[in-house]
């Protein structure tokens, strides 16, 4: 298809205009974070981040976020590999019904479960603990992970599984030695998505946590934005600190983010 | 459902068990408990009182709740309708022109999707502030009378929150539609052109029917996102000013943990869940029928 010069210029204008609209708010906050402190602290540039880190206690919050994210990613991906393998390659009674049960979890909004979860965990004395933040998110990610890996194992594995069986490999060895290694791209997609969802999650930590030491980064930022009222610079620096880890991963693995969020959305 | 490869294997249950235990305990059981709690009037502390379906009746009866669902409807316009319209125009134009730098463009417009909503909220609260960048621009171009504290304004707070939704959903929708349009075979355009179709006729005859599936996915995703606007409202407006930006998912939190109306909160959560299920199934069924 050939377009006229005028049309082509028009297209670039549209492209750039929309790109600027998408980037504008991000640029605004990054620029504010590096600018001179409007709260009268006298710092600017990278020094803002040091001061925000200290005043906002982001070290504590980031540590908690890393711990929660790593736990949720590792546990939910392991459990999803096992369940996705079973649903994708084995036949057993009730597999269909059980799989639909997992699909419910993909659509279920956190708002529906967080209320009963809080009161039941409170009865058990488990609110305000690390597990109360991590385990509900493991459950949510396992629902998606099972769906995601079942589709992968189903599409790729028939001949592999049969060949492995002819070679006398058991189901456990077949999974870890034959199926998992070539599944790396699908697994990377799952890992980055679960990491992003967990890192960015807000409602669950907000409800479950009261101790300051258990606040995740977004929760800490929300509190910081409520309490720190002298100027925007340090708040912007805090926001950049909280947002950067996922953006960094996105910068390197953006294909996985886009493919995962779009294909994962097509949930039959 | 076609049967998966391999012989029947009981061992499958053992592989599913760990996932099912966590999933059952932290998602399925709480969902059941939400339904249970929704039948009670309970403040979270003292003994609850069984009230049957009255909490559900309140979703229709209670003016505040009706308003919250109405606000969600307004947000759907900003989160779903506008992004799909803008996305269709953008993607069609970009697809026709085959401009360079499309990959980079994709990366940029998708970026808002990966940023924590709290960070997004902090950024936009600054943009909308009385002395923020938006008002600076308005004053610079002589529109001083329009400048205001956008999030504190009864009439403008809800649309202002909605525009944030338009901002982060349009990129997602555009990328999704671009992927769909890239799959349209070139012969279809040629056939339309031989029939004498201009760009607009071509859009309705070739492009629109081909991306029905993508539109369905985009609508599903963005409508659900609109219904689940919690973080953004919590950080930008806390439902205010007054209750002008209260939405159902904010009401769940507000009622359960601030007002001590746990049963009502659970009922709203259950309604949200049913709404999301209905929309997901409904939109997909509609798309299937129209492509068949």
UniProtKB/TrEMBL annotation, chain A:
Membrane topology, as annotated: Multi-pass membrane protein
The record's section on PROSITE patterns has:
ABC_TM1 (PS50928)
Keyword Transmembrane helix recorded: yes
Cross-referenced InterPro entries: MetI-like, MetI-like_sf
What SUPFAM superfamilies is this protein classified in?
MetI-like
Q: Which Gene3D superfamilies match?
A: MetI-like
Cellular compartment(s):
Cell membrane
The UniProt entry's GO CC annotations, sorted and at most eight, read: plasma membrane
Keywords of the record, alphabetical order, are: Cell membrane, Membrane, Transmembrane, Transmembrane helix, Transport
Record field: transmembrane: 12-34, 61-85, 97-119, 131-153, 174-199, 232-253
Please give the family membership noted in the entry. Answer: Belongs to the binding-protein-dependent transport system permease family.
Kindly provide the name given to this protein in its UniProt entry. Carbohydrate ABC transporter permease
Which species is the source of this protein? Kribbella sandramycini
Automatic annotation (TrEMBL), chain B:
Q: Which SUPFAM superfamilies does the entry mention?
A: MetI-like (SSF161098)
Q: Which PROSITE patterns match?
A: ABC_TM1 (PS50928)
Alphabetical keyword list: Cell membrane, Membrane, Transmembrane, Transmembrane helix, Transport
Show where the ABC transmembrane type-1 domain sits: 69-283
Superkingdom of origin? Bacteria
User: How does the protein associate with the membrane?
Assistant: Multi-pass membrane protein
One GO BP on record is:
transmembrane transport
Asked if the keyword Mitochondrion belongs to this entry, the reply reads: no
> Where is it localised?
Cell membrane
Chief location bin: membrane
InterPro entries from the UniProt entry: MetI-like, MetI-like_sf, UgpAE/MalFG_permease
A single GO cellular-component term on record: plasma membrane
Query: Which chain regions cross the lipid bilayer?
Result: 12-32, 68-91, 103-124, 154-179, 200-227, 262-283
**Which Pfam family name is an example for this entry?**
BPD_transp_1
Task: State the family named in the UniProt similarity comment for this chain.
Answer: Belongs to the binding-protein-dependent transport system permease family.
Query: Which protein are we looking at?
Result: Raffinose/stachyose/melibiose transport system permease protein
Which source organism does the UniProt entry give?
Kribbella sandramycini
């Amino acid at each position: 298809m050939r377009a006229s010069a005028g049309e082509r210029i028009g297209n670039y204008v549209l492209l750039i205009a929309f790109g600027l609209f998408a980037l504008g708010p991000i640029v605004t906050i990054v620029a504010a974070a590096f600018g001179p402190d409007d709260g009268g602290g006298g710092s600017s540039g990278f020094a803002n981040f040091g001061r925000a880190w200290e005043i906002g206690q982001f070290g504590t919050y980031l540590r908690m976020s890393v711990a929660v994210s790593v736990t949720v990613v590792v546990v939910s991906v392991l459990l999803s590999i096992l369940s996705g393998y079973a649903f994708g390659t084995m036949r057993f009674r009730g597999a269909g019904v059980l799989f639909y049960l997992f699909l419910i979890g993909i659509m279920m909004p956190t708002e529906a479960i967080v209320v009963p979860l809080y009161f039941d965990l409170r009865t058990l004395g488990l609110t305000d603990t690390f597990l109360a933040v991590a385990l509900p998110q493991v459950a949510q990610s396992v629902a998606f992970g099972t769906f995601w890996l079942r589709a992968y194992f189903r599409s790729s594995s028939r001949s592999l599984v049969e060949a492995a069986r002819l070679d006398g490999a058991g189901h456990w060895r077949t999974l870890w030695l034959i199926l998992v290694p070539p599944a790396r791209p699908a697994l990377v997609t799952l890992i980055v998505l679960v990491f992003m969802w967990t890192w960015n999650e807000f409602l669950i930590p907000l409800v479950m946590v009261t101790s300051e030491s258990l606040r995740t980064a977004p929760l800490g930022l929300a509190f910081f934005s409520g309490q720190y009222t002298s100027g925007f610079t340090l708040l912007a620096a805090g926001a950049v600190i909280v947002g950067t880890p996922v953006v960094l991963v996105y910068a390197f693995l953006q294909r996985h983010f886009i493919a995962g969020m779009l294909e994962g959305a097509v949930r039959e | 459902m076609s049967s998966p490869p391999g012989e029947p294997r009981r061992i499958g249950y053992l592989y599913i068990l760990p996932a099912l235990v966590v999933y059952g305990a932290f998602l399925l059981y709480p969902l059941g408990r939400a339904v249970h709690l929704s039948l009670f009037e309970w403040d979270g502390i003292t003994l609850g009182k069984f009230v049957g379906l009255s909490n559900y009746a309140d979703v229709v009866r209670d003016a505040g709740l009706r308003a919250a669902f109405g606000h969600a409807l307004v947000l759907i316009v900003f989160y779903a309708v506008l992004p799909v319209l803008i996305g269709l125009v953008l993607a069609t134009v970009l697809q026709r022109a085959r401009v360079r730098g499309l990959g980079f463009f994709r990366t940029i417009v998708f970026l808002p999707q990966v940023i924590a909503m709290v960070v997004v909220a902090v950024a936009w609260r600054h943009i909308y502030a009385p002395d923020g960048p938006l008002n600076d621009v308005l004053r610079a171009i002589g529109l001083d009378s329009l400048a205001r504290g956008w999030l504190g304004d009864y009439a403008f707070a809800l649309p202002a929150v909605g525009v944030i939704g338009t901002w982060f959903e349009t990129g997602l929708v555009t990328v999704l539609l671009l992927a769909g349009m890239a799959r349209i075979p070139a012969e279809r355009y040629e056939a339309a052109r031989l029939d004498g179709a201009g760009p607009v006729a071509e859009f309705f005859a070739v492009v629109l029917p081909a991306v029905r599936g993508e539109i369905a996915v985009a609508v599903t995703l963005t409508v659900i996102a609109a219904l689940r606007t919690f973080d953004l409202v919590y950080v930008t407006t806390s439902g205010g000013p007054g209750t002008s930006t209260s939405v159902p998912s904010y009401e769940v939190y507000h009622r359960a943990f601030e007002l001590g109306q746990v049963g009502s909160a659970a009922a709203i959560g259950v309604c949200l869940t049913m709404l999301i299920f209905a929309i997901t199934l409904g939109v997909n069924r509609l798309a299937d029928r129209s492509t068949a």
